[in-house]
């Protein structure tokens, strides 16, 4: 996911929810994320990327460290806003729609959010049948472009990673060429690399 010369260390929460699919789950996960961010900073990491499209603990982690902390939802939505007029996010289930819409509002991008689609597959099942996930992502993405006027597609769960090429092909077969599809984790890691290379981090006046 990262560029050459970038070392990526993956850390899992020692306690908390199995998956993050609600505000309650996000609250339970936040303390562990903050602790891992503090440990990463103390151990000399250059940046931290949170592996969840709910961006749990993002603001709190930024308050505790000086190195860049990036959330894939914030990063992907702003990247989408740079690449097209409106974007749609493909999430897992209908119950996740309010969370996605609230994040878009928090990040100042509500007017650019064309729609939030869902593939009716829970997070825990995304790796069980990747063909089913890919087919559902293609179907809902085509619908978002055709019906909702989306110009960019963003995956709404980091476990959807690896399906971008298939969705682009599906969009092209439906007659929609040149529609960017953002895979949040590799995109956020690359943005984190750029932020580090530029010597930037979050403002201490904000966090």
Could you explain the architecture of this structure?
α6 links the parallel β5 (152-155) and β6 (181-182). The strands form 2 sheets. The protein has a 4-stranded parallel β-sheet with strand order 4-3-5-6, with helices on both faces. Strands 1-2 form a two-stranded parallel sheet. It is globular and about 50 Å long. α1 runs parallel beside α2 and α5 crosses α6 (164-173). It has a domain at 73-184: 3-Layer(aba) Sandwich (Rossmann fold), CATH 3.40.50. The two termini are 28 Å apart. The protein is built from 7 helices and 6 strands. It has helices at residues 23-42, 58-64, 72-83, 97-106, 130-148, 164-173, 184-197, and strands at residues 48-49, 69-70, 87-91, 113-118, 152-155, 181-182. It is α/β, with parallel strands linked by helices.
How is this fold's topology laid out?
Layout: H1 23-42, E1 48-49, H2 58-64, E2 69-70, H3 72-83, E3 87-91, H4 97-106, E4 113-118, H5 130-148, E5 152-155, H6 164-173, E6 181-182, H7 184-197
Parallel strand pairs: 1-2, 3-4, 3-5, 5-6
Helix pairs in contact: 1-2, 3-7, 5-6
Concise summary:
The protein has 207 residues and is α/β, with parallel strands linked by helices. It has seven helices and six strands, in the order αβαβαβαβαβαβα. The strands form two sheets. Strands 4-3-5-6 form a four-stranded parallel beta sheet, sandwiched between helices.
């Amino acid at each position: 996911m990262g560029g050459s010369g970038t070392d990526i260390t993956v850390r899992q929460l020692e306690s908390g929810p199995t998956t993050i699919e609600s505000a309650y789950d996000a609250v339970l996960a936040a303390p562990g994320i903050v602790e891992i961010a503090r440990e990463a900073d103390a151990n000399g990491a250059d940046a931290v990327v949170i592996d969840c499209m709910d961006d749990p603990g993002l603001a709190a982690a930024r308050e505790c460290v000086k190195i860049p902390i990036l959330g894939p939802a914030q990063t992907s939505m702003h990247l989408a806003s740079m690449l097209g007029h409106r974007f749609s996010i493909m999430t897992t289930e209908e119950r996740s729609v309010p969370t996605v819409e609230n994040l878009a509002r928090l990040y100042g991008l509500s007017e650019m959010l064309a729609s939030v689609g869902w593939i009716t597959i829970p997070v825990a099942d995304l790796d069980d049948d990747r063909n089913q996930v890919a087919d559902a992502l293609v179907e809902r993405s085509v619908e978002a472009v055709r019906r909702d006027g989306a110009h960019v597609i963003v995956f709404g769960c980091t476990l959807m990673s690896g399906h971008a090429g298939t969705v682009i092909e599906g969009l092209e077969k439906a007659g929609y060429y040149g529609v960017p599809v953002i895979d949040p984790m590799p995109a956020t890691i690359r943005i984190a690399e750029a932020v580090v290379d530029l010597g930037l981090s979050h403002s201490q006046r904000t966090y």
